[in-house]
Structure formats: structure tokens, C-alpha cells
Design brief:
Family: Belongs to the ATPase alpha/beta chains family.
Largest sheet: 10 strands, mixed
Mean pLDDT: 89
Number of domains: 3
Oligomer: single chain
Distance between the termini: 75 Å
Low-confidence stretches: none
GO molecular function, one term: proton-transporting ATP synthase activity, rotational mechanism
Number of strands: 22
Protein name: V-type ATP synthase beta chain
Strand content: 15-25%
Pfam family, one: ATP-synt_VA_C
Keywords: ATP synthesis, Hydrogen ion transport, Ion transport, Transport
Length: about 450
């Protein structure tokens, strides 16, 4: 039986204080019936004795406290799921925004999810091909991993996210693969770009989109990634699909969290963000993974824009602690016209060694990856030295490494926005670039692979 109260006492922004309540639980869903006949929704943010602090999803503008009736529904926010969610576009609260029919749910799932028992987790060990060489070849994404992309204002992370969503696939066999795409705090133009791109390429048939616009309430931004992950858990563990979850932009999510925290008058932590930011982000990121005995998996690719290009900012800093590496976009490469502008040297995928090699990608993958890293780093050092001392001060070998670094950025890192490279094409491109360097300098590759794969300089 629902409990209904008319004891709302205070309204500050999206927060409402309700007094003389009983048996109210944290996270409980709330309906507010205002005097003008409008119904709004919210959730219990804090319960203390006979008082409850309610967070409104639709905002509080125009509400009349005296005439409002508050009904506590005895359950938390849920998402109705069914196989029909594939190919659909929803808002941040799980309501259709593509003018399609409402979903007839097979079941309703709590958007906060259920934590995966660490003992039941299976180790990520299978390769996911994104079609992007700088990721597949050097910072490999593994099924069940959480690998964030650290971007900055003005860099093309939206285009990169759309390209990965369009091209990502699981190799080997006829395995069911889906993409869950959640966008938080984006403009109408960005939302239109994502939806149009998915429809134009046909990728929407295997995707579920959740769109939260910049003018939507901040509280809706907090529920958006949880809605997306709930849909992903249904697809992965009920329908046994391999699901890639792309979350953009996590910085907008954290800003919404800070806004709500300020409205609650909580003591701020670093740079004004709430002290529980780490814990809150962990409740999102840790929903990626595989479960022993289950076919499905959830792989996460969160995207965040670093304020002022600062890697030590609380959002990228805490994200780096929780996740298994990071892909970093470079403003310098972007100015050179490189797309995607992935800076491979500071980027890292901690699980890449588990997803590459014989019967996964190719036997020479690990050796060529290490050699490309080493050669590119040496080429960058040679170019930096040339800036200080002049190119005449470089040895002939240093000049070769400097030319290699330029060719590497132009041919390996840079690729078309619609170019979908297979892992074999990526590895072969790496070998052609390595042929620019004398064989004696390729010390990180075994002789058997050099004999088998290294082309002659003239052939390259």
C-alpha cells in the first residue's frame, strides 16, 4: 500500500524536505502530485527519523508545496527490459525518445544493479576489435575490461565514440554482440549526430541509446549511466550477448553530482566535488566484467573530457585508479590533422597482454607492439633533440627513427573516420613501418617473426 503525505516543508532547487514520514528507505521512488494536476517523480536521497529528503527528477519550478501530495512507492527506480530495446533511443530516465511505441517489459530491473561476487568474476582474456589501429595494435581492448578515454575540450571524442560503437566486434564464431551507448549532458546537435550516424550505418540495429541533453535536469544525468548499465546487464546475462558500453561524457556526470551535493550543503572535497566521488564512480565502473559459467560479458569504454587538459583533475585521477588503463587524446596530434589523435606513449591498457597472441590476434602481436612503442619513443626523443641542437646534430640512425615517428603518426595512428581496419591490417601496417629501421635495431622481436613477417624496405 502506498504512503501519501502532504507534509512537504521546504523546496530548494531539485530538493524537497518532507516531514512526519515513517518507514521510508534510501533510494525509494517518489511521485509528487502538484495542485495543477502535474505528476513529477523523484527519489529519497536521505532519510533521517521522521524526515525524508527527496530529489526531484523533473525540477521544482512552479510547484506549490501546500497543495502537493507526496506518494512513496516502496521501490527504487527501475528499467523495463525486453529484447525489443535493441534499436531504440531512450532519454536518461528510460523513456522512449524516438517516437516509437513504449516497450512491453519482460521484467523490471533495479537501475542500481546487484554487485558481482568477486569470486564469480571471470578474468578478461578475449580480444575486442574496434577497427582503430592505435587501440587494437597498441592498447588492446579486452572483453570484460573497463578502459576509459581521456579527452579534452575541443577534441573529437564524440566522433571517436561513434566510430568505435559502429565498428566494434568480437572475432571468431557467430557470437551475439551489442552496443549500449549513453550520452550525458550533450547538446541537441551532438545527440542528432549520434542518432543519425547510428541509423545511417545500420549500427542502431544492434544498439541501445540513452540520450541526456544539456538542458535536461541534472538529476536525470545521474540516472543515465545506471539505466544504460542495467540494459547492458540484461543483454549480457539474460540474453547472453557480448555488450560494449560507451559512456560519454563522465565529466558532465560528475558535474551533476557536484551540483546535487552543493544543493544538499555537503562538505566539499577536492575542487568542490563530493568526498564520495570515488565511491560513486566505482559503482558505475565496477559493473563491467564477465561471470563464470555465463556466456555474456560487459565491456566499458567511459569517455571523459579533462578540465584544462589536466590529468591530475579529480575525475580522470579517480577514474584511473578504478579502471584498467586509459586512452589519452592529444591536442598536439589533433593540430597536426591526425584522427583519431591518440597519444600512444602515455596511453595504457593493463589487460592487453591477456587478449593478444596466437589464436586471439596473431602470434607476432606482442613483439611488434613492444617494438613499435620503443621505436616511436626513440623517434620522438630524436625529434626533440633536433629542435634544440638542429637536425645536423643527429646521427643517421637518429634521423631514421625521427622519420619513423612521423610516418607512424601519419600511417598507423591516423586513419579515416570511416576506416575500419582489421587486426591483420593493423599488424601488417606496423611491419611496413618497422622496415624503415635497420633489422639490427629491431631487438624486441624474435628472429623467427622477423624472417616471417618483415618486408624488404623496397617492398614496404
Amino acid at each position: 500500500m502506498f504512503k501519501e503525505y502532504q507534509t512537504a516543508r521546504e523546496l530548494v532547487g531539485p530538493l524537497m524536505l518532507v516531514e512526519q514520514v515513517a518507514g521510508i528507505k534510501f533510494g525509494e521512488l517518489v511521485e509528487i502530485h502538484s495542485g495543477d494536476g502535474e505528476t513529477r517523480r523523484g527519489r529519497v536521497l536521505e532519510a533521517d527519523g521522521d524526515k525524508a529528503l527527496v530529489q526531484l527528477f523533473e525540477g521544482s519550478s512552479g510547484m506549490n508545496l501546500r497543495q502537493s501530495k507526496i506518494r512513496f512507492l516502496g521501490k527504487s527506480l527501475e528499467l523495463g527490459v525486453a529484447p525489443d530495446i535493441l534499436g531504440r533511443v531512450f532519454d536518461g530516465m528510460g523513456r522512449p525518445r524516438d517516437k516509437g511505441p513504449a516497450i512491453i517489459p519482460e521484467r523490471s530491473m533495479d537501475i542500481n544493479g546487484a554487485p558481482i561476487n568477486p569470486y564469480a568474476r571471470d578474468y578478461p582474456s578475449e580480444f575486442i576489435q574496434t577497427g582503430i589501429s592505435a587501440i587494437d595494435g597498441l592498447n588492446t581492448l579486452v572483453r570484460g575490461q573497463k578502459l576509459p578515454i581521456f579527452s579534452a575540450s575541443g577534441l573529437p571524442h564524440s566522433q571517436l565514440a561513434a566510430q568505435i560503437a559502429r565498428q566494434a566486434k568480437v572475432l571468431g564464431g557467430e557470437q551475439k554482440f551489442a552496443v549500449v551507448f549513453a550520452a550525458m549532458g550533450i547538446t541537441f546537435e551532438e545527440a542528432d549526430y549520434f542518432i543519425a550516424d547510428f541509423r545511417k550505418t545500420g549500427a542502431i540495429e544492434r544498439a541501445v541509446l540513452f540520450m541526456n541533453l544539456a538542458n535536461d535536469p541534472a538529476i536525470e544525468r545521474i540516472s543515465t549511466p545506471r539505466m544504460a548499465l542495467t540494459a547492458a546487464e540484461y543483454l549480457a546475462f539474460d540474453l547472453e550477448m557480448h555488450v560494449l558500453v560507451i559512456l560519454t561524457d563522465m565529466t558532465n556526470y560528475a558535474e551533476a553530482l557536484r551540483e546535487i551535493s552543493a544543493a544538499r550543503k555537503e562538505v566539499p572535497g577536492r575542487r568542490g566535488y563530493p568526498g564520495y566521488l570515488y565511491t560513486d564512480l566505482a559503482t558505475i565502473y565496477e559493473r563491467a566484467g564477465r561471470i563464470k559459467g555465463r556466456q555474456g560479458s560487459i565491456t566499458q569504454l567511459p569517455i571523459l573530457s579533462m578540465p584544462e587538459d589536466d590529468k591530475t583533475h579529480p575525475i580522470p585521477d579517480l577514474t584511473g585508479y578504478i579502471t584498467e588503463g586509459q586512452i589519452i587524446l592529444s591536442r598536439e596530434l589533433y593540430r597536426k590533422g591526425v584522427f583519431p589523435p591518440i597519444d600512444v606513449l602515455p596511453s595504457l591498457s593493463r589487460l592487453k597482454d591477456k587478449g593478444i597472441g596466437k589464436e586471439k590476434t596473431r602470434e607476432d602481436h606482442a613483439d611488434t607492439m613492444n617494438q613499435l612503442f620503443a621505436a616511436y619513443a626513440r623517434g620522438k626523443e630524436a625529434k626533440d633533440l633536433a629542435v634544440i641542437l638542429g637536425e645536423a646534430a643527429l646521427s643517421d640512425l637518429d634521423k631514421k627513427f625521427a622519420r619513423f615517428a612521423d610516418a607512424f603518426e601519419r600511417s598507423y595512428v591516423s586513419q579515416g573516420e570511416d576506416e575500419d581496419r582489421s587486426i591483420v591490417a593493423t599488424l601488417d601496417t606496423g611491419w611496413r613501418l618497422l622496415s624503415m629501421i635497420p633489422r639490427g635495431e629491431l631487438k624486441r622481436i624474435r628472429d623467427e617473426y622477423l624472417d616471417k613477417y618483415l618486408p624488404a624496405p623496397a617492398e614496404a
